[in-house]
């Protein structure tokens, strides 16, 4: 690393950068330096992830770390780069995209495997097109908090180590300030990386990429008769599990373009996302999505559509189209099974009974008809007993008769389940805290005035969302009326 002054703790010697992605070769990326931001300051640091990455706490709090994670200096051994990818956006082939504002620093080896470290918002790259290479404070705080919220919920995701800010101005609909989120993931490779090399007829590079992904992340596929079909099947299964997790949690992603689909089945690119407030299956969280392509209830089908694009991109590596189609089939069984398993856990059902599918469907139907707050319903249901009056749950419904009929059906089902076992299962699967839009908005408003304490408070709550956190019930309440007027678009 560059020399540091006496006041700054030396960079930990354990910070050894590996540059796995570089081994793919120059067709896959452009080496470049991040663009510095003036007078950077910390917005928030994620000490838990820092520990997992092997960063010493006193170093992580130093000026040297601040400069490194803002992109103002580059560590020895790190080879910063931006990768090239393409993709389908809102159902249309968009051609070449790439890391227009994300710069990969390299990977850190941890006890739980290699983690790539990427700066989002660290300046222009050859793939920036018309963009400025920057990210604004507002969207960076949202990405930081939601990444860790998803991790806390047990949903596969890219992680976020810290957010740094600067008073440098960035133009969006209005003038805002710049920020950088440091992300971590085993890999940031997207479906769009494969599409890029396939659509540009670079089939040797397509094979190199597929082999790299198989070797590093899906080694079992190498043993299969058709390794590339096996890869497609494995990615389909991971994506199916991801969609089940999103749907069960009431998470809307908002921009499920193929360039925002992780080859590892991680949630990636936190833009206009939203956790549902009132349960509305057709809810559209992205103000720019006028057609509702990425509405909550469309997500599982869109994921399949995106997998189909991945399958098409992989075709040059397969002998027949049927191999790709067969590989995609797994999604159609894994997704519904995974969703049922998650919904059974939310209902507190440790085993499977034939009537459970109908119970889950009835629950969704009832929640939709009554526009019930999704998170609050499930958390209150944790203390439901057939014997009690269960007013706390019933009060959420205006159609009391339908609720009573549902409660009878549910009571009959849970009569055979140990009450302690059920409560335990439910409290681990029905979070008290999710990152509702208004919570993020309040923290962002304070952060714009340089009060970052709200970001840290939310981070703590969201990292263990199933815990009670006494004294913080106001973060688990209904959204205020003004929350309905928050419009989140692609602008970030
Ligand atoms: N301000 C910007 N400057 C340069 N490129 C941008 C900017 N905003 C978006 N892009 C690029 O536009 C494309 C689509 O953007 P999208 O919103 O999906 O991604 P993103 O939010 O920038 O990043 P990621 O997917 O890495 O989280 C990507 O190639 C992205 O890098
Ligand atoms: Mg993106």
From TrEMBL:
* Assigned keywords, A-Z: ATP-binding, Magnesium, Manganese, Metal-binding, Nucleotide-binding, Nucleotidyltransferase, Transferase
| Reaction catalysis annotation | L-seryl-[protein] + UTP = O-(5'-uridylyl)-L-seryl-[protein] + diphosphate; L-tyrosyl-[protein] + ATP = O-(5'-adenylyl)-L-tyrosyl-[protein] + diphosphate; L-tyrosyl-[protein] + UTP = O-(5'-uridylyl)-L-tyrosyl-[protein] + diphosphate; L-threonyl-[protein] + ATP = 3-O-(5'-adenylyl)-L-threonyl-[protein] + diphosphate
Q: Which residues bind Mg(2+)?
A: 260, 269
| Top EC class of this enzyme | transferase
Q: What is its EC number?
A: 2.7.7.-, 2.7.7.108
Instruction: Write out the catalytic residues in the record.
Output: 259
Q: Which InterPro entries match?
A: SelO
Which cofactor names does the annotation list?
Answer: Mg(2+); Mn(2+)
Q: Which residues bind ATP?
A: 98, 100-101, 120, 132-133, 183, 190, 269
Q: What does this protein do?
A: Nucleotidyltransferase involved in the post-translational modification of proteins. It can catalyze the addition of adenosine monophosphate (AMP) or uridine monophosphate (UMP) to a protein, resulting in modifications known as AMPylation and UMPylation.
The UniProt similarity line reads: Belongs to the SELO family.
List the protein's name: Protein nucleotidyltransferase YdiU
